[in-house]
Amino acid sequence: MMESNVGIGRRVECDGHRGTIHWIGELPPAQGTWYGIDWDDASRGRHDGSHNNIKYFQTRYPTSGSFVRPAKVNTGITFEKAIRGRYQDDATVESEVMEQLQREINARFVEVVGMDKVGRKQSGNMLCIPDHPEELKKSLNHVVHLVLNNMLVYSWMDLLTCCTMFPELRNLQVAFNKLDVLGPIPCGVFDCLEELDIGENPISSWEEICHLGSLPRLESLNANSCCLKRITFPSTSATDKTPLFPHLERLMLANNPLDTWECTGELNKLSKMEYLVISYNVKTSRYFQEFTFARISKLKVLNRTELSPKEKRDCELFYLKTFSSEYYKNGGKEDQNSNSLSQEFIEKHPTYLRLIKAHGAPLDDTDFKTQKSQKLKDLKVELKIIILSEPQREETFKFFLLTTKVAKVKMMLKRHLKINPSTNLKLSYCSTKDGGFEIPMDNDQQDLAFYSVENGDVLLISL
Fold first, then answer.
1. Coil/strand/helix, residue 50
2. Which candidate, 306, 260, 298, places its Cα nearest to that of 279?
3. How far is the C-alpha of 20 from the C-alpha of 65, rounded, in Å?
4. What does the pLDDT look like over 109-141, one tens digit per residue?
5. Among 367, 366, 323, which residue's Cα sits nearest to residue 345?
6. Each residue's pLDDT tens digit, 398-430
7. I need a labelling partner for 5 at 20 to 30 A (CA). Which of 59, 227, 277, 423 fits?
8. What is the pLDDT, as a whole number, of residue 135?
9. Which domains can be identified in the chain, with CATH numbers?
10. What phi and psi, each to the nearest 5 degrees, are found at residue 132?
11. Is 460 helix (H, G, I), strand (E, B) or coil?
């Protein structure tokens, strides 16, 4: 016999599957009452709510509907029974899992109640939105934290409509809702919202995320495990701040297929962002953390790593030095007031000029690097070494870089010839082009090139 309190919209369960009653009545030629159910799992049903070419109810999916006799349907249990069934008499968690959990939270004793059963039974709900939700504002104005995860059939507009009942919301979670679009937020909705979790939704466009940028008090946004491929604020120039997200301090973007190098430059446009969680490829982004701290001016914590002001300054100096050659090749000057820097460089390194203003321009070592890039054989000379006080010693030859200081040459010779390190050496050389004249090398701070030493010359040592 059908329960008297069962009606359209009632949530039911049958053989472990859950669904919603959308129709109650007879199905000629069969006698008796049937329920028309739209199942949460589309594979559980058989049709779209039709029978003998007559449409009885609407389903969410073409195969999520079926007709079931009331006797086969479980229409619910008491709250107490539900609690006991979910948490009581569960088997203990495997010992190795418990030990790992103890290590992670540094606890001597851990008890996890009903973890496996909760995991198996966890599912979303199909709560119907009231016809006039705005009329419930006064009754719900003390609710500040609302979880609307895994609502199954709620669209973004349904979620917004539902939230109009909670005018004082500070924290909202709408994860696992299969949302791929968000859309504009009506004026007056989420005026008090400070934390928002939209993670685990297939949102691929940053433009959809930007719809949240109008929220006046939003401080924390979780968009982990979405499908975001890039971040861009197209209406804002490379070095300006965006008017969107005026109070956003914390942003979570882990497990998104982002181009992390480009997006860190864009994220610098957020005026108050201090905390960022983001995934990146360690193999292809060796200095990602250091560069990100330099590229996002107000960033203090990256992937839960907090830097001191000195450490952040070191990251900024390292960033300046790393890209100094690129800076000068693109029109940069040591005097930033005379810069003719290319727009391409500015867009790629939007914080570079700000860092130069704070720390000064990096050294222009273009000429040195050009010299260094020459073939090594053009920078080396082979010298014949003679110790004047030991004419019987066997002739020795050694290669030196022309950029080597005389002081370092002396150190190298002491090691090579096994001369007492405390011995005071005096060096000179005979040029093969000057008729064998001896030229003293009396300045330890000059390099070999200063003395015009050439390949084949003789290096003379006085002990």
1. strand
2. 260
3. 10
4. 545 454 444 433 445 666 778 888 888 888 898
5. 323
6. 888 888 899 999 999 988 888 888 889 999 998
7. 59
8. 87
9. 11-72 (2.30.30.190), 79-121 (no CATH), 133-279 (3.80.10.10), 376-462 (3.10.20.90)
10. -130, 75
11. strand
